[in-house]
């Protein structure tokens, strides 16, 4: 039997709660998982309006060919007879490697490419300059492990299709990507191969894999069998988030409604949720598998990935030998881009831009 006893009082739990609130305020974001972004109805309607305009324009015109007459871009640039490459930068931070990309673009004719930037509007980003100036498209928030990254890529595709009918290839680029060859080398690779194929359709360069130890968990990330009947497990694919698509495949992406209904659903198992790595490979594998190479032009090192992020290269690793190694592939083609590089790699990369990177 206790010698002393204290009267119970509601004051003690009240004080405890009040003292806990500041702690929860400061530590909560680091303890609780972030709320996943979902696709809102207004955002969906905005995108559908954009997609419908791009679809209507694309279907009213022929696919870009070398004999097309000169046209004028909706952003004001004058097009030429030759097909173009649309470089689409998807970023949620500053474009740290803009100076390197400037060298890449400045070594070729400005009428052979267009640039489009989707920059997360919730993050303050240093305004791009030079050839990147005024290239940010109307953008919306993005978040990892959410369908917003799919929406951003589709938004870029539709904008580029609507802007210039001569955009024949659409290369999705990360802010952590660097070029591994000159623009002329890339251009020749994409379009000379087309000539060698005797005017057959262009091929899309997108990784499409049907085997992965995590595939089943990712397929059920939204709940068991939620993806059916639109996508059965044997149709589910995985691939790189970054790709180089033909115009006809870009059109298929923005026309799609059926698969999007499932891929836009929020994930229950966030750790297995990488929608952007599955939507594009799955859709194009189902729609036109023979029109895709099933490999990407972007080299990524997954040997020591951390929390779903690939190996990040730092300045001590940057060398001419690294560039030559990153170009190598298991096929007859060469990789054209590489990621992931830390921002402080810019200086050593710029030092060997002319002598190594753009010397093909």
UniProtKB/TrEMBL annotation:
Question: Would I find Zinc among this entry's keywords?
Answer: no
Q: Where in the cell is it found?
A: Membrane
Which Pfam families does the UniProt record give?
Branch
GO molecular function terms listed in the Swiss-Prot or TrEMBL record: glycosyltransferase activity
One GO cellular component term of this record is:
membrane
PANTHER family from the UniProt entry: CORE-2/I-BRANCHING BETA-1,6-N-ACETYLGLUCOSAMINYLTRANSFERASE FAMILY PROTEIN-RELATED (PTHR31042), DUF4005 DOMAIN-CONTAINING PROTEIN (PTHR31042:SF63)
The name on file for this protein is OLC1v1004801C1
Organism lineage string: Eukaryota, Viridiplantae, Streptophyta, Embryophyta, Tracheophyta
